[in-house]
Amino acid sequence: MKPVNRRHFLKLASTSVIGLTLGGTALRANAQEQLQADDPTAKALNYTPSSTTEGSNCANCMYIQGSDGEQHRPCAIFPGKLVNAEGWCSAWVKKPG
């Protein structure tokens, strides 16, 4: 096994950080289509565009992406789709903080 020198480590670390940053941007950029309730994944996770669970909705879930205040935003659970910020699914987890 080849030892890792400082220069190689820093190059790898900076590339990883850039990749993670651009990956998050790509997730938001690629999400174009609104998630429909009849989507197979949405059905499996009981997605609804209007939450009936008090205090729980996509806007306060840890998986939602994008800026607060946007009505439809990307979600890590449904890649390539936009979820309604007022929606809910069974994968909902309270956003930390």
Automatic annotation (TrEMBL):
- Where would one find the signal peptide in this protein? 1-31
Q: Where does the High potential iron-sulfur proteins family profile domain start and stop, copy by copy?
A: 29-97
Which PROSITE patterns does the UniProt entry name for this protein? HIPIP (PS51373), TAT (PS51318)
Pfam (any one): HIPIP
The family database entries (InterPro entries) matched by this protein are listed as: High_potential_FeS_prot (IPR000170), HIPIP_sf (IPR036369), TAT_signal (IPR006311), TAT_signal_bac_arc (IPR019546)
Keywords from UniProt, A to Z, are: 4Fe-4S, Electron transport, Iron, Iron-sulfur, Metal-binding, Signal, Transport
Q: What does this chain do?
A: Specific class of high-redox-potential 4Fe-4S ferredoxins. Functions in anaerobic electron transport in most purple and in some other photosynthetic bacteria and in at least one genus (Paracoccus) of halophilic, denitrifying bacteria.
Q: What is this protein called?
A: High-potential iron-sulfur protein
| UniProt organism field | Alteromonas salexigens
